[in-house]
Amino acid sequence: MTGAALPDTRDAAAEFAALTGDGAIKRQIRTGLVIVGVLAAFLIAGSTFARLDSAVMAYGVVQAEGQDKVVEHPDGGVVSAILVREGDLVKQGQVLMRLDPTQANASLAIEQTAVDTLAAQLARLEAEAVGAPTIAFPKSLTDRASDPAVAAIMAGQTQLLGARRHALRGQAGAISEEIGQAHSMADGYRGQIAAVDQQAQTISEELAGMKKLYAKGFATKSQVDQLERAASALEGQKREYQANLDRLGHSVGQYQEQASQLGRDRLSSVAEQLDDARAKLAEATQRLAAIQAVVDHTTIRAPVTGYVFGLAANGAGAVVAKGEKLLEILPKDASPIVETRVRPGDGGRLQKGMKVQVRVTASQWRGLPALHGTVQSRSADLIADPKTGQPFYSLVVAIDRDEVDRPGGPSLDVGTPVEVVVPTGSRTALAYMFQPMMESLGHGLKEQ
């Protein structure tokens, strides 16, 4: 073993020196620099010519496009039934909810009776005004004549018309009777006057003959005086009868005036009652209409076809205050909108009418194609958050109607969270890299 030959290391050392000599190292460095230069050239060329899309991103929630219909109750009441649920699609006029109508119906019945009574009274007064033998009741009553309450009102006014006519005839009859009696007494006085005239004529003839006899001495003075006294008595009796006849004539005139005044007073009274009845009927009709509206409002109907949301009442027995919101309906054909906030630096890149992409961020809708929309508006000035004080621009995006109705698309219920992407153009990578530096340089030059 000690005699074995050792390996010759001189050749290996020479080879190592050849590989690590100055010339080999320089060649390797040159090769590396060439590779780096080629890569840098490719990067610079790519940064110069390759363009990257730029966009503004924001987050928000789906809202109604200001067209949602708020269903309120003007009077309030107690809920008796709720017939819809959150998210239900309802048709225009469909019953959504009912309130307890008991109190409203009671008030309606009372006011309806008042209106019916005044309408019947007005018809009776109109019949009295023209002297009609019967009452022409309005159709609003005759159509409901089978209703016992209405029939009783009509019967009462018919009886009243007969009673008033009978009373008027009684008053007129009493006056006519007085006039008849006066005429009978006048006829009696006229007969007595005629008899007195006849007696006076006879006595006048006897007196003339007696005076002739007295002149010839065939009659006494007492006989002549007796006939003259008889003639004078008849004349006085005639004057008394004539005075009584004149008084009766005056009485007849008064009775006739009473009869005329009775007619005038009746017409005047009827006219006043007509005016009063018309005014009261108009007021009662307005009250009835108002109460009828309250009754109608106890049945809550959908003002438009759409989707129910924001249901406030939680079940039967709930008390609804006057003017309180019951629910809202998003019209079926209304386009949903997204209201979001963008940073101050991005606001200047956004304009009305720009196309946007909207993606629903809820997990069950991830992976679906983006929805298309349009920038509807952007606030003119920055707005400060009332809580944090951070400034922002308000951006409203309208989602296209066709996108909403797209089969298999996401559900865009009010409150659905979404991501909004607004493409704002494209720039080279080089521009992206140097833009911050250029903006800082420009800002510095402005300050100088």
Write up what this structure looks like.
It is a single chain. The protein is an alpha+beta fold and 448 residues long. It has three domains: 59 residues, RNA polymerase II/Efflux pump adaptor protein, barrel-sandwich hybrid domain (OB fold (Dihydrolipoamide Acetyltransferase, E2P)), CATH 2.40.50.100; 189 residues, Helix Hairpins (Orthogonal Bundle), CATH 1.10.287; 113 residues, Beta Barrel (Elongation Factor Tu (Ef-tu), domain 3), CATH 2.40.30. 54% of the residues lie in helices and 20% in strands. The strands form three sheets. A six-stranded antiparallel β-barrel has the order 1-10-14-12-11-15. A four-stranded antiparallel sheet has the order 2-9-7-4, with no helix packed on it. The chain has a four-stranded antiparallel sheet with strand order 6-5-3-8. Strand 13 and strand 14 form a beta hairpin. Helix 3 packs parallel to helix 5 and helix 3 packs antiparallel against helix 6.
